[in-house]
Write a sequence for this structure.
């Protein structure tokens, strides 16, 4: 793939603090510099992330559709066989749109891990769970809760949760779920909003599950293409993501609940909610940019004013995170790093062994690769938005190119704050 | 004169749009009294979308209908009327930016044929599919 330097010849150079990165975006590049080392790191991490993600999306949907309002959901992380066999809509022979050429059912490496765990021994599921030899599903729930708590980040999904139509749908499902249970029905009568809010949260479980159902096959396919030698540069990896975002943009986002074999449509597909607007963009805003301050790095003391008063100003997502304390108390991404550790491709393990403290600080090294890879995903989102809402990079009209530039500058402005890691990922020795 | 759907069917270059409108069950709506202003992307405009986009939308009709209703505005807005405003609200609910300062642009698309009158409204032809956001 070749990129012309046309924009620079028409527009004068940008005066932005990150002008080099702006010019790279204008030439069709990524925020992450295009080096073979960066490509290897991000693809290896996509693979290592996709395997636990295959568990996350299945379990999120299982909780939203079957566990539902169980007041004691002690076994919500125990996936039943039907959810291991559930066909991903974007993999396998019967896919709606085949992205990954592999199987539609659970990934074999994940299945092996569920059965044998780190101990490499077949033991009852409960034993693996209690000895914490398992997928850290709490991380997926933390992402869901970030989306649920930040709310109002665009799209029509969130406003719908406050409509009478939604409340009526939820009411029907709540009554059906607690049918024959006078205690819970009595509680529902007394505190209806308590239950309604739980259902809203469950709708976000469904939302995030449907979001990740798409990302897992995208990452698997990228890893396979890299192994086959068909992905050779960082911009190619980014463009694969851009095309993936467009291809799936129109998949429906919904929330169905199954009670005694009957399907209750809390959010029906016919509402027209779409993957791009109702799941992907809110996810990126909530999880990549905002989330919530790590308990281990910020004081929630109201007088200390370390935590912003406005949710818009939250900047605790992976694009800003300090990865060095990963593995210590109060650093939530540790859960994900631990999950990815089990599924690293051999080339990445060998790579980490050569640097820093080798085997001893794997979690931190892979955490930093993860940060690089998410800067590349965010670049794909920015390029996709530019493609959808603005103009092609080789547009001959200078006014159009200026509009593109202003859009890129506005996006990069968010990384001016000192916590942002955009500067760091430009250096190869940031590891 | 013919209505909006008839004009699109009889004109060259709107095959994808007409099929999409049929799949999304919007034929009856667009044959209704209206009046409507329709920003109609050509086949070339649909072809500019990355591969897979149209396929996913055709599989999911409510989502397809939402994208299509973003191309429709209530009322009959001729080019001369649109020159007086900065944006109009689509039937989908999101605003569409209008720029007539230099040519005739609708959001990030350019109008390649304006003011095609129908019984129940007017059609402006776009060189690109426009998207909400």
């Amino acid at each position: 793939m070749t990129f012309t330097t046309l924009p620079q010849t028409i527009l004068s150079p940008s005066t932005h603090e990150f002008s080099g990165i702006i010019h790279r975006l204008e030439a069709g590049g990524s925020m992450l510099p295009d080096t073979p080392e960066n490509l290897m790191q991000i693809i290896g991490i996509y693979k290592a992330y996709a395997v636990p993600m295959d568990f996350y999306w299945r379990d999120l949907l299982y909780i939203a559709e079957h566990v539902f309002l169980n007041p004691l959901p002690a076994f919500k992380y125990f996936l039943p066989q039907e959810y291991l066999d559930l066909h991903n809509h974007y993999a396998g022979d019967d896919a709606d749109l085949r992205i990954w050429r592999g199987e539609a059912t659970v990934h074999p490496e994940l299945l092996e891990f569920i059965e044998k765990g780190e101990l490499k021994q077949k033991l009852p599921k409960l034993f693996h769970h209690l000895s914490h030899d398992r997928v850290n599903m709490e991380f997926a729930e933390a992402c869901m809760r970030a989306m649920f708590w930040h709310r109002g980040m665009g799209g029509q999904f969130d406003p719908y949760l406050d409509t009478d139509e939604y409340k009526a749908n939820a009411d029907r499902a709540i009554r059906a779920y607690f049918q024959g249970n006078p205690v819970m029905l009595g509680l529902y009568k007394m505190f209806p909003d308590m239950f309604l809010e739980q259902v809203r949260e469950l709708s976000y479980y469904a939302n995030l599950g449907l979001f990740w159902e798409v990302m897992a096959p995208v990452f698997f396919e990228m890893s396979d293409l890299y192994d086959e030698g068909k992905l050779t540069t960082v911009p190619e990896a980014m463009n694969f993501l851009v095309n993936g975002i467009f291809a799936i943009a129109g998949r429906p986002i919904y929330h169905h609940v199954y009670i005694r074999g009957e399907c209750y449509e809390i959010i029906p597909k016919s509402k027209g909610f779409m993957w791009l607007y109702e799941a992907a963009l809110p996810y990126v805003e909530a999880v990549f940019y905002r989330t919530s301050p790590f308990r281990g790095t910020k004081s929630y003391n109201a007088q200390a004013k370390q935590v912003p008063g406005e949710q818009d100003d939250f900047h605790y997502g992976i694009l800003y995170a300090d990865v060095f304390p990963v593995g210590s108390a109060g650093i939530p991404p540790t859960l994900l790093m631990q999950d990815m550790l089990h599924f690293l491709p051999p080339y990445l393990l060998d790579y980490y062994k050569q640097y820093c403290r080798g085997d001893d600080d794997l979690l931190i090294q892979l955490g930093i690769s993860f940060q690089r890879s998410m800067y590349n995903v965010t670049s794909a989102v920015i390029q996709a938005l530019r493609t959808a809402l603005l103009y092609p990079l080789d547009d001959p009209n200078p006014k159009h190119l200026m509009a593109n530039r202003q859009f890129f500058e506005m996006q990069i402005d968010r990384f001016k704050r000192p916590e942002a890691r955009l500067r760091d990922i430009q250096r190869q020795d940031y590891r | 004169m013919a209505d909006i759907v008839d004009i699109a069917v009889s004109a060259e270059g709107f095959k994808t749009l007409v099929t999409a409108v049929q799949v999304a069950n919007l034929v009856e709506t667009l044959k209704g009294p209206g009046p409507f202003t329709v920003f109609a992307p050509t086949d070339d405009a649909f072809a500019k979308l990355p591969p897979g986009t149209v396929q996913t939308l055709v599989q999911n009709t409510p989502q397809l209908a939402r994208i299509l209703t973003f191309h429709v505005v209530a009322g009959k807005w001729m080019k001369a009327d649109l020159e007086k405003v900065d944006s109009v609200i689509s039937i989908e609910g999101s605003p569409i930016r209008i720029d007539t300062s230099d040519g005739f642009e609708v959001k990030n698309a350019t109008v390649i044929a304006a003011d095609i009158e129908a019984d129940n409204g007017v059609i402006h032809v776009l060189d690109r599919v426009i998207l909400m956001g």
Notes: The first strand of chain A starts at residue 255 and ends at 259.
